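Sequence decides. Our protein:
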Amino acid sequence: MSIWCIEHAWRHEDEFDPTMKPILEWLQQSFDGFECLYRPTAGYDDLLAELGEWASRGHVDYPILHLANFGDETDLERFAELSIGLPRADKLRKSKSECAIHFGPTHDLEEMAQVHESRHLRMLRGEPSVHDRSTTLVEGLFEEILATTGAASVSGYRFGYRDGVGLLEGTVSDLGLFFRVAQDCRGPNRQLSSEVMRSAGQDVRNAHFRMKTPGKKMIGGHSVPRKPARRPSR
């Protein structure tokens, strides 16, 4: 199993400037047959080029797109539209190779979904939103991405992690997700699929994690079970 990671940092004023590169390198060095391609981007044009390259042909060898992005509202709005209208999405839909899109723990999906919804309402000039209010904004965003790209799954975290402890928690969840997918895809005839991604996603113990696969309810929101407190011995 292989991952294509694009890291695009916009919030240069943040005191904490995380990177997923050492985590992906550790994954690659620790598990046989696990390959990670890390591609940092400096500007919006670079980001477009990377996404287009992955969608057109890179997803065949690197079926999991790992997006490690964080930015201010102006850039986040552009990225929200870009995630739905992924460059070369037609290539993805017509491809026989399944792919999955995952937003890393530095990415705030709730914020991105709100920005996308606000833009959508502005385009409608105040008319009611077409989104079903019985679903969350994040689920609505996921459904649009799935419909546009034909991906096997889309996943990430409702709230992005900005501090060291939170980033560690999200990264541990990512490690568990990717390891489970790699385990399930071992063997010459075992390929990435919605079922593989969903099975791995159900094991993620993180309250902010969410995953959507075509035609299925969104899963996630499981916290790590806490051990019951010991009663004092008499």
Remarks:
- The chain has eight helices and seven strands.
